[in-house]
Give the backbone structure.
Amino acid sequence: MNWRDNRLFTSIEMCKTREILTVSVGILGTKLGMTQIFDETGIAIPVTVVQAGPCTITQIKTKETDGYTAIQLGFGEVAAKALNRPELGHLAKSSAPPLRHLHEYRLGNPSQYELGQQLKADIFEAGQIVDVIGTSIGRGFAGYQKRHNFKRGPMAHGSKNHRLPGSTGAGTTPGRVYPGKRMAGQLGNSRVTVRKLTVVRVDAERNLLLIKGALPGKPGALVNIVPAKQVGK
Amino acid sequence: MNAQEIIRSIEAEHIKTDLPTIHIGDTVKVGVRIQEGGKERIQPYEGTVIAMRNGGINKTITVRRIFQGVGVERVFLVHSPRIASIKVLRRGKARRAKLYYLRDRVGKATRLKQRFDRPLD
């Protein structure tokens, strides 16, 4: 067995242990905006306010029917006319209202959840470490300086190289630009995970989470909040 | 309840309502809470307000004084619980929003004319 096999083996082992540990259920929410609050020592904490849930369990996936175990959450109530008939039919099975967003959470044993159950912000507690997944603010087709922090050329003294990339590689050999060469292109509007953020406060009544630090996207953006994933354990 | 209202209601728990109206050029006395070996005491700091940033709960004032011949500027987060009190001692007359020009002046030239049309609290 060479090192490659060994690495494959360990990754399979890790997958197995992860399945036993199970990924815990997160919640979907809307980013409302940022503010700051003061803790008991008087230190100002920057927080993002998130309207988290209520999320309805719209489907429970089991090994027998789907080949894996997961629960599906729905979030974001909309008018019935905003959804099409297959979507409404799917939601009708769990007698859920028309919901815009559906998201699955894999877990080992979904039997403790039941169809149509509501998950609220109180599944988190203050002080808990979470990961937040969202879509970053789209900046369109961005150039080298904005997208990859390239240096700019001289603006004067006869220079015509202002925002050009410089060399993209060698010449006839290899005769092509290597994949992964940093170039201009779409910046932002991509999936971003911000890891290890602290939940500062949970408002169970209004389903609000106050999370320390910034979250991806603008106010109104959909964010997925999950308990922090432990990497490399 | 929309997003702005929710955020405002969270801020409302921390925003002080008993603050005096502070203007640029005023001489103020700020009581700062200081932790010293488990004991808490309030240290006064007196000086001229040379800048103000109105940011809701993030409102700050910059207070300048001359201490032992050295100019000292402190920025106070006025809604912070570490600020025990703010008292206006004297209303000063200033014709601009930022009095950074006071940094280049020494002695008598740093004085501001007092104005009497504004009450002290």
Observations:
- The longest strand of chain B covers residues 39-53.
